[in-house]
Amino acid sequence: MTQSFLARRGFLLGAGAVGAGVVLAGCTSNEQPQAQNGGTQPVAQGTGDNAQPGKMVTVGFSAPAADHGWMAAMTTNARAQAEKFPDVTFKPTEGTNDVNQQIAQVETLITAKVDVLVILPFDGKALTGVGQQAMDAGIPVINVDRVFDTPLAFRTWIGGDNYRMGVNAGNYIAQQMKAKNITAPVIGEVAGIDSLPLTQERSQGFKDALTRAGFAVGPRVSAQFTPESGESMTANLLQSAAKLDALWNHDDDQGVGVLAAIENANRSEFIMVGGAGSKNMMNHIKSDANPVKATVLYSPSMASSAIALARLLGQAKGVGDLAEHEIPSEITTYSAVVTKENVDQYLDVGFDS
User: Fold this and answer.
1) 122, CA 20 to 30 Å: which among 8, 39, 225, 268?
2) What span, in angstroms and rounded, lies between the C-alpha atoms of 128 and 285?
3) Local structure of residue 139 (DSSP, 8 states)
4) How confident is the model at residue 11 (pLDDT cuts 50, 70, 90)?
5) Which residues form the Periplasmic binding protein domain (predicted)?
6) Residue 113 has what DSSP assignment?
7) Of 253, 254, 213, which is closest to residue 237 (Cα–Cα)?
8) Residues 241 and 124 reside in one and the same domain
9) Are 150 and 194 found together in one domain?
10) In terms of domains, do 31 and 134 share one?
């Protein structure tokens, strides 16, 4: 089960390595291209000088197998972004969960002398060496999501903020409890794999936000980031808690099973908040027909931004609207809370879980 999870998300950096939270305002547009499957994918588009085609840039792309909703969206978004730019040649490798195979694929891209590499490693530690090999060969690396062991292996890192996911989920629930005048709420949590730093960071942020509001985490279970485990562990939680006021589930792919357990138990007295930002959870939020009232983003749109950043690196451009001539070395995306009031704004970054 850990292998299945790693295919989707992986080991992330600790809170001390979180970047500056830069917003790519100068590289973005609301225009969305049609994807090959008939849907739309979130893309960034240069504005001002960045919007003008520059020299051709060959971008190599390597990621794990697209065998989960979030990871599939990462690969789809990267391709859609590359197709948006007439001055980008996209060279993807076949997604794999075999570390040695991914290393070999990246080495092939290095030998091919691509201009920039975008790497979402199956295992950041295991891929650190090949990332540094690329950098030593003069090929800048955009490291996505799962961080390498050393900054020497990448030019820029872009990824999500697990601690703030928990904080924002906790803040939303606390606000809802206070709005309902519930002074001692029972707040449940369906976490991911407890041994992973990312789960620990999410749970710590959740706990810290609730503590600051005068509340506490109540019944808690740990699942495996899969629908099956989400359903079984949530069923256990519901059996142990005769009453709940709120529930936070860390992951929307896992949330498919969490919702199934809630429906099977015929429970509806509490609100539920999801995590990551899947399209089906956003549709639940929009319909307002079940306990799902919000989800906290950990958006695969970061893959689109990674390709846009790779183009800028290859053309020696900075990020529009920033004073610096160079793109930042670390970019942390923001975990916005999607609710019924703003869900239409975020549907374009939703993914199929």
Assistant:
1) 39
2) 39
3) -
4) very low
5) 59-313
6) T
7) 254
8) no
9) no
10) yes
